[in-house]
Amino acid sequence: MLSRTADHLYWMSRYIERAENTARLLSVSYDTSMLPKAARQGLKSWQGVLSISELVPAYREIHGEITRDKVLDFMVRDDSNPASILRCLRAARENARAVRGTLTTEVWETHNHTWLELRRQLDDGAFERDPAQFFEWVKERSHLSRGVTQGTMLQDDAYHFLRLGTALERADNTARLLDVKFHAIERGDYHGSASGGVAQFDFYHWSTLLRSVSAFEVYRKVYRDVITPGRVAELLILRPDMPRSLLASMQEVVANLTLVANAQSEETQRKAGRLLVDLRYARIEEILATGLHAYLTEFLERVNALGGDISRDFLVAN
Amino acid sequence: MQRFDEMYAATPFEGSDVRAHYKSYREWLSRQPADTMQARRAEAEMIFRRVGITFAVYGAKDEAGAGQERLIPFDTIPRIIPAPEWTHLQRGLTQRATALNRFIHDIYHGQDILRAGIVPSDLILDNAQFRPEMAGLKVPGDIYAQIAGIDIVRAANADGTGEYYVLEDNLRVPSGVSYMLENRRMMMRLFPDLFEQHAVAPVAHYPDLLLDTLRAVAPASAPEPTVVVLTPGMHNSAYFEHAFLAQQMGVELVEGQDLVVENDTVYMRTTHGRRRVDVIYRRLDDDFLDPEVFRADSSLGCAGLMRAYRAGNVAICNAIGTGIADDKSVYPFVPDMIRFYLGEEPLLSNVPTWMCRKEDDLKYVLDHLDELVVKEVHGAGGYGMLIGPAATRAEIEDFRQVLVGNPSGYIAQPTLSLSSCPTYVESGIAPRHIDLRPFVLSGKTVQMVAGGLTRVALKEGSLVVNSSQGGGTKDTWVLEDATEAEGSAAC
What we know:
Chain A is an all-alpha fold. Helix content of chain A is 76%, strand content 0%. Chain A has one domain (3-315). In chain A, helix 1 (3-32) packs antiparallel against helix 9 and helix 10 (157-186) runs antiparallel to helix 17. By secondary structure, chain B is an alpha+beta fold. Chain B has 15 helices and 23 strands. Chain B has helices at 23-31, 34-51, 83-107, 112-115, 121-125, 177-190, 192-197, 206-216, 239-249, 305-310, 323-326, 334-342, 359-367, 393-405, 482-490, and strands at residues 54-61, 67-71, 74-82, 147-156, 162-170, 227-230, 252-254, 259-262, 265-270, 273-276, 279-282, 315-317, 349-350, 354-355, 372-376, 385-387, 410-414, 420-425, 428-437, 439-442, 446-447, 453-456, 472-479. In chain B, strand 20 and strand 21 (446-447) form a beta hairpin. Chains A and B meet through helix 1, helix 6 and helix 7 of A and helix 2, helix 9, strand 7 and strand 9 of B.
């Protein structure tokens, strides 16, 4: 397929995935903000929201003090914030429009409808009236976009580039989420500590993180035990059957990369395979012993480099 | 002035007879509650918006920073053409497209028609649409305009029946076929019962015919030709149509940046390296195709395309230089072309036309400006024209100055009263002027689907149907068998 087309497809799916992850993050922080003070104390979730996307300086320049409503506004509808849901969904739709002939009608209409409906919700105040409902809607639209892709698209290169974008973006987002949450603890922003502390804080902190990736019920099912930081990290990094884990995301990246391989992509495939194998044979104890932040920082660097390699091998015209 | 309405024998509509081929539809319409029709119209707009059937408006941005995309208003009352009339049109269109292709070939080869004195040489050789680069170049099958959009209007004649006239030939990159197809889909979705009751000739196979036509002109060296649609990009007003046709034919939609010419061969840049391109259905004008030959400042096309074309390694549809045959100054000569190349009498009439370059014609035009339509020969989209009967005295005087300064830049025609068709407007159903653009495909044979795009002027009394000036569209029905349709409606 055309390199330019592959580029649009890849970014279309990255942007919709990014919008979903932002909605997940905001949704959980919003829920947490309604907990009694004791339970939410120290979570600093609104700062965390900004840190994940490396947006604290950009936010401070516009708004100064970090407050719930201002962060929500900044992350949802601010046109000057490239990571806002508005900007992500518009970029997803513009990319879809550029390749609408490559998509099935259903996939294109899903993206177009998402964009039109987003504009309506933001214009008529639906978001402010019920943020929780709005975040659910963003997640649903992302589910729908993946579902309609899977359900209608021919499984050719176009499909694989879509999957590649989704998986790579998800690996990045889950790693960032984990990093920010754990980092807050390591810095002592949090009342308890990574190894134990007050049980109630532990519960709310980790359950928040799990809920943000729809993993709360999964955790219970897998471990049938109280929530501990080590297991949360294990679930989200190393479980191959947990859809948003780093390992599962990288499996998806490698599988799709193999399917679109070309004459110059050998080195990129090698790097991706290496990253996958490192995850497959890692142990959570080792990761925690060397430090989760350092581990995730390295992972993010490798994912970022992989994104650059994929661009060079497939997406940039030559 | 005599008027002709497609559905009713007279205006106002109340109490007027309904023309035979509209009887069954009119009966159906009279049974529809007003609020149902209103709901269907709202539904149509909602679907068009969701499906993204829009055209881009140049230079405009909406409040969210995306380029402005506008819906073309869609009217739910179809324009209906009975089978015998269509048969006549089809024969006339085939004849006309054939002669026009012969003419373009002749102009770039022997120029017999100029030497025979039938078309004045200066009209062609000094014309900006004439491309000397095409002289002597052999194109596949000697076909130049694979896709022609020929605008047809109907006007009343003395006995109150309508007569079809060709208003304009579009042989460069005619648009609108996607609306023809989407309008039909929309009508079938909104009013399935109507299609059970009427034998409406289908149009959905157009993309198949188009692909067949494009493949037919591939270089002989490509037994399994790769066809692409070349678009100027997302911001072009017809981008929807480009993407739609590429998708419906299952071929790549490429931009200039996706193409590269090497060894006089065109390739596209794919994720698996370069792949050869054999046929380009281009949707950008000659000027932008190749900066090596035409406009050097344009990055929309692809450098070297003309070299590949000349080497016979790629087919370009429509060919370069077809504009010489759809120029308004050449239009008056089309009936003569039909006689000259085919030895036949034209089946479809031209609108009578005065050529202001001729002294006598100019004098007549200047004396009758208040009753004529005067058009710029290179104008398009309904701009640069004077509609005499609708113009103020000051406008006419201004136009007179312009015309006297550059008579050969203009032609004039009588203000035909274009036929009208009942159309939903704010006050209810009212007559609005329409035209028809059938799409004629010339490959190994001449093919077309029955009907075309019907455009409608939504403003009362307006004759301008162009979408850039607020015109709308309607579904066009060719009834395969009127008697059968009436029979089944009675059940």
